[in-house]
Amino acid sequence: MNKQDSSLWRDLISNLREQRRHVHALISLSREQTHVLAEADVERLAEITRQQAEHLDEIDVLEHQRKEIIRRVGESMGLRAQPPTLSDCAQIAPEQVSRTLKWLQRELVQEVRQLQMLNERNRTLVNHAAETVNMWLALVVNAAYNQMGYHPQAAAETAVILNAEV
């Protein structure tokens, strides 16, 4: 293994570790998001959403860099598969590098699955909240509509409840 190859392996491992750091941050934010959704803390939810977007942008940049590093590894090592996969690289890497790559790959896959599960739970919470708001709005509208049949002045009051500008 020459100096350039060694540098490519270091760059690849460093890139994967950095991606993993961002995924960990996203997991932490998703857990916090669950509590914030339950507490209906809109300000903190907006901040979490902004932070998540920053981490996702960083992961996107790192992923482009990872693909370029892997392409260069493939060229350097004569891999025919273009673009080579991380598994392809792990097969041709020196033993210690290979173990590290395989471990990072497994960890990233597990952590991304965990993040997907947390995001699904949060999506479900948001859907339930939207359904609850919809139900309460339907109750208010129905109550206002039913009042019109009992009180002649109720129609004017109902107009305020249903005012689209509010």
Note down, in words, how this protein is organized.
This protein is mainly α and 166 residues long. It has one domain: Methane Monooxygenase Hydroxylase, Chain G, domain 1 (Up-down Bundle), CATH 1.20.58. The chain is built from 5 helices and no strands. It has helices at residues 3-39, 42-77, 86-92, 95-148, 154-161. Helix 1 (3-39) runs parallel beside helix 4. The longest helix is centred in the last third of the chain and has 54 residues, at 95-148.
Main structural class? mainly alpha
Number of strands: 0
User: What's the N-to-C terminus distance?
Assistant: 69 Å
Rounded mean pLDDT score:
86
* CATH architecture title: Up-down Bundle
Under CATH at level 1, the class stands as: Mainly Alpha
Along the chain, the helix and strand elements come as HHHHH
Q: Provide the helix percentage.
A: over 70%
Unreliable parts: 158-164
- What Rg is obtained from the alpha carbons, in whole angstroms? 26 Å
Shape: rod-shaped
Strand content: under 5%
**The CATH topology:** Methane Monooxygenase Hydroxylase, Chain G, domain 1
The tally of domains stands at: 1
Largest sheet properties: none
Our count of helices gives: 5
